[in-house]
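Record format v2
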Amino acid sequence: MAAPSADITALVHEPIDPVALTAYVRGNADGAIVIFDGFVRDHSQNRRTLYLEYEAYEPMALAKIQEIAAHLHNEFSIHRVAMVHRLGRLELGETSVYIAVSAAHRAAAFDACRYAIDILKRTVPIWKKEYFEDGSVWADGELPPVPSATSAVKPAS
Amino acid sequence: MPSVSQPVRVKVLFFGRLKEIAGRTQESIDLPAEANIESLFAHYASHYPELQQYRSSLVASCNQEFAPWNTLLHAGDEVAFLPPVSGG
């Protein structure tokens, strides 16, 4: 269990406010903030992108984002985390995911932020559909790792 | 009443292209006792043959945790079929 933290983790349907999130993680004992700002690119595999639509298995996706944030506190000497993913239709240049990590020293902030986006892209149930002038396609994704079958028989929840 | 097989009602969720193939985002379904996620998927694949080609590139979840295909299902479980994730 991570130390009681005041992280921000969210799925939102409106534009993300990077300034507010960055200010939120900034503390007097910190010396660094590392930010990952993922935004909509104007092309994909040589096709011109018009816009994207993101959907999520929302309760599970939020739980997974919260797990990642908690894990960051266990693994890295950091202060606060803001991790927000936007859903719905996004236009070119709009931020889809924003991660800000504050820490006393830069190395932990860099490492934690990199880890957070890499794990998010691999394990959080969010899907992106890309719209082009001549059609649309679900983006290629990654298959999350699943616990082994030896633990398959779960107790009733 | 161990000899009486009670149907197991579960909630099933579809995402991404699976939602488009199944034509729905979710439904409740009654399964025989001893049903697992694999047999649940087979049920849908028999109704929507296009689903079968995606079987090897899906993972499943049960009650919002990733779950192996042989996970036994219980009444009230929430099962989802999840295509490769592409957030970020």
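Chain B has two helices and five strands.
Residues 16 and 36 of chain B are 22 Å apart (CA to CA).
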